[in-house]
Amino acid sequence: MEFDKIIHEPARLRIMMILAGLEQADFNFLLTTLSLTRGNLSRHIEKLESAAYLKVKKSFKGKIPNTSYQLTQKGTKALAQYWENLDAVRQLGQS
Amino acid sequence: MNSKQNNKSQDQNTEKLKEIPKWTRKYAQNRMLTPIVLMVMLMLFSMLFGGGMAFLLVLAVAGFLKGNIVLGCVGTAILVVGLAVIVKYYIAFLKKYGGKNRGLIDQIIEQRIYGKEGTASIPLPKITKKMRGLDYLVGAALLVYMLGVNHLCMVGYIAFKYQQPLMALFFVPCFVFEYYYLLRPKVGPIVLLWPILYAIHAILILAGVPLFFTGYMRFWNMFIPLVGYFLLAYMIGHLYSRYALKKLKGLTHLEGDAVNGV
After folding, report:
1. Helix or strand or coil: residue B143?
2. Which domain does A21 fall in, by range?
3. What is the three-class DSSP state of A56?
């Protein structure tokens, strides 16, 4: 059984889990909750985006530009699969 | 022994991670400072303009009644100018924030309040045209009902102490309908505290508890609990969002190499 290496990385797993509970979240929110540096967070997001797990939405809030992120269907499926695999491994470890 | 402990601790960590979406949702659903600020702004503007207009009206009427035509005319002129200014600003406000820009003012306030924290949102339920129409109809009916109850109290058909219970009879089911069909899941169930508290208030009045105003303040029997419980319920929601954010930060906190790993 293989784990999805993109999701398995702790920071990216957390990003995916945060977005799983929402319709969308912006860069600042992820920065606040994860306490990562801007550069680090950007790189993690790029990886998730290049795997098509995230969708980026650029808009304006009043006059301020805003970048939001949303899980794609592929991302949602990959995340569910990741937890399935992890639970299976845990169960094997217990038995 | 150590390996067993490690496994147990890893299991606990995994279970904690699974709670992230739950707390993220709870946080997003309870960011309630924006409606509180909007309500306070609405109250302040209403008081300012309502109070100002009432003062000018009293001035003009008193002038005419006392036979002071100059005072009456000046009062009426100021009243007309005041009304014109309100209409002008109201039209300008609607042009800027109404129609296609509906919701822009909420966004601006939200950006000011939560800008540093960032935005996390849950979608509004899909509202059909029929549902939206029903919402407007219920809103209009509520307004007519409210004015009707107020009028019946003024003319003495209903005692002022029953104003709030009568209002609760319409408002409570209306808000519950609004929540289940138009607000959920964007807004969390904590807002239901508003109609619940309002209903309890009404029941207590009917049970004989003197939770109403008399004298000059009797005109506010309907509104003060309405606004008061709104502020209370939404403030509790706001405090809960702070708790959810703290919990979320605890769950997502990364240490050591995990922070830098890309």
Report:
1. helix
2. 5-94
3. strand
Q: Tell me the chain B residues in contact with residue A23 when contact means C-beta distances shorter than 8 Å.
A: 121-123
Distance CA B45, CA B86 (A): 11
Question: In the structure encoding, which two tokens stand for residue B143, read together?
Answer: 């307004």
Q: How many CB atoms lie within 10 A of CB B187?
A: 22
User: How many domains is chain A built from?
Assistant: 1
User: Of B163, B212, B214, B172, which Cα lies nearest the Cα of B192?
Assistant: B172
DSSP B189: G
pTM for this model (two decimals) = 0.84
Tokens of residue B220, six digits:
């506010």
Q: Return the closest-CA partner of residue B28 out of A34, A58, A18.
A: A18
Residue B113 touches chain A, beta carbons under 8 Å: no
| Contact status, residue B167 vs residue B144, Cβ threshold 8 Å | no
Q: What are phi and psi of A52, to 5 degrees?
A: 60, 30
CATH of the domain at A66: 1.10.10.10
CA–CA separation, B188 and A85 (whole Å): 32
Give the model confidence (pLDDT) of A57-88 as tens digits: 988 766 778 889 999 999 999 999 999 998 88
Q: Which residues pair with A64 in a beta bridge?
A: A61
Q: Which of B120, B259, B262 sits opposite A22 (nearest CB)?
A: B120
How is residue B215 annotated by DSSP?
G
Q: What is the CA radius of gyration of chain B?
A: 25
